[in-house]
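The data layer described in this paper is built around a simple, fixed record for each protein. Because each token names a local backbone shape, the row as a whole describes the fold. We quote a single record here, exactly as it is kept in our systems:

***
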Amino acid sequence: MPKDTILFERNNITIKERSPQSEIRATPLDEITGTITVVESERGIFFRFVPLGLEDVITDDWALINGGHSVVYDKNDGDSVAVSSSPLLKFRYHFNFNDLRSVRRHHMVHGIAHMVFILKDGTTLPAFYFNHGGSKELLQKLAQYLPLEKSTQDTRLYIVKDNLRRDISSQSISAFDQLNLFDNSNDIMKRFQGNDSRRTAIERFSRVTNFLKDTLLGPNELISTTETSDRKFEPNMTALTESLNGDFRESNNDGFEVDFKKLPDVARGQPLTVKEWQMSFDKDGRIMDVKNLKERIFRGGLESHILRREVWKFLLNYYPWSSTRDERTELIKKRKSEYHTMKVQWKSISEQQKQKNTLFRDRESLIEKDVTRTDRTHEYYEGENNVHVKLLHDILMTYNMYNFDLGYVQGMNDLLSPILVIMEDEIDTYWCFVGLMSRMEQNFHLDQSHIKSQLSNLYTLLQFIDAELAKYLVENNANNMYFFFRWMLICFKREFSFDDVMYLWEVIWTDHVCRNFDLLICLAILISQKTVIMESKFGCTEILKFFNDLSCNLDLDTCLLSAEKLYIQLATHRDIPTSIAKILGLPTGPNQQYHSTIENATYPRKIYTEQPRGTMNLDSSYFRQESEPSLVPVQHETSAAVLNDFFTMTPFQF
């Protein structure tokens, strides 16, 4: 058998593991160092990354790395032939050059260059840091075998064009094919396996997020390629210039255009301190200026968990904002009694009664199953027989009795977990959770009409702001915005670190800026990735995979700034349609004005009864480049039927 030829090799390459649980104790796997090689064999040319310590661990090209276990598959019969349990195995990456769709290279003038690779199936590999150089050489090596074309919008980004060279094997042997997300068709476009239910396909997409989610980007020296035979590279210092544009319905684009050249000067602030909080009460313990306090929280959040323990009770309507100290004392006594009464109701149900109540029995079983896997990597919930896991169970069971018509639905456990971490008290946690569910209950209705409506509203906003991107989504069967389903269902719980989620939630709970501010956050993130999505020619499946892989790779403050600026642009726009005004809670009368806090300006607005169509051009410089995840793959032909039944299933299986 011919020996593989090494075309490129570089040691001391580092990847960084990121966890959504920011408070988890540091482990030796925070940074993984290894070797990158490019090898040529009779089957094609392959990229490989092997962590230190695994050089002698033998796996073939059909290894599935999952959950710290390497399961080696025989290509012919699919049988498992070996199992290893090294936690480093999930950081061993291998793909055929034919599977590569794009690569992004970041090279800082005084820093460590890194590269991110995106495969055609939508998989985003983590950032590979070249501590001793070599990223430019690897890019040159890629250019020798692949037709790389630099993005016109982002010169860090190189896209593999479709006409791959003939001397590269057309057979893909990526380890990620073993995810069974797609079949082994030779078509460029892969389809979901026919023998899998659509529910299974969607569930697998959610699991893929746990594979590869580290794309750490930063300021860099951008480079551009030439068409010369020796593939020389020349520096080209630029910044990401692609921006925000808009329309909703492809068939109604009549060229209406709104051009905003001046962006509002918006800034985030420092967290509210304990001292500021204490000074906000009068002698009776009543908050003196609720509006100002909410704005402070919106601008910077809260400085500590200790402060959150008090403020969240107001934000979640456990305590009325107008209550006095004595009134809150009485309220605590009342709520304590009510909680114990409801808890006794379900705890006193006998096994015989349960057997005659299928609905109660099924809900209890689901709660028991879900709490055992809720944030178990977080230090507050880790370990066997954890008492806090038991509290999650009891609180959810009590809520099931409190709101039996709704009961328990998967995803509620995710919303409850951070509240318990903050409150550290069963009763306080319960009543804060009740307040949160009063805001989000509609998300969990079986018909999912509310989330459908919110996703439709999100597309309506996109229609007005970015006609080009909205049209692209229509053409690729992605205008249903399903890729934001999980984000909306559990309010970004899986998209940011644990600490960032708490910060984001308290910002949203203030309701300071407008109604549906969370939609603007989604929209800002979507538009910031426009270049990646469109130049990679993503289809519906790849877009869904791409946004799953954004998990924990977004800078929260940048997202909040971008969302607020979008709001101000919309709120001060003189030609805002009624549909947009209603979504954001803006006045819709013809003589209404939006009073901006920016330089005390007041803007008259014309209200349309029908939505004008076209493009609103916004400068996207406020999207920090270091927070923008790297490019992702080309479109694989995707059947619109893949997600047709998405909203008919039980909320997302996490």
Observations:
- Residues 146 and 201 are 31 Å apart (CA to CA).
